[in-house]
Each structure stands twice: as structure tokens, then as C-alpha cells.
Amino acid sequence: LDQRKIEDCMGDPEADSDNPVLKAEQDAQ
């Protein structure tokens, strides 16, 4: 996934730390 797409989907980049699935996808990049 693209970082911009993740942020756009979440609406708040800070929420990433509370979402283990997104964190795992980011770490996999």
C-alpha cells in the first residue's frame, strides 16, 4: 500500500499506531 493511500483511508495518520493491521502493512514495505 502507498503511504498516501493509507493516510487517506485512515483520515488520521496518528490512528495508524492503534491499527495493528495497517502497522503490519507499513512494516512490510
Short précis:
By secondary structure, the protein is mainly α. The protein has 2 helices and no strands.
Topology:
Elements: H1 3-10, H2 20-27
Walk me through this protein's architecture:
Residues 1-29 are annotated as: Disordered. By secondary structure, the chain is mostly helical. The chain has one domain (1-29). It is 55% helix and 0% strand. The longest helix has 8 residues, at 3-10. The relative contact order is 0.23. The model has no long low-confidence stretch (mean pLDDT 68).
The biggest sheet, with number of strands, parallel, antiparallel or mixed sense and barrel status, is: none
Quaternary class: single chain
Low-confidence stretches: none
Average residue pLDDT: 68
The total number of structural domains is: 1
- Outline, from the CA principal axes? flat
Range of strand content: under 5%
Which structural class is indicated by helix and strand composition?
mainly alpha
* Radius of gyration from the alpha-carbon trace, in angstroms: 8 Å
How many separate helices? 2
State the helical fraction: 55-70%
How would you spell out the order of helices and strands? HH
Total number of strands:
0
Q: What distance lies between the first and last C-alpha atoms, to the nearest angstrom? A: 8 Å
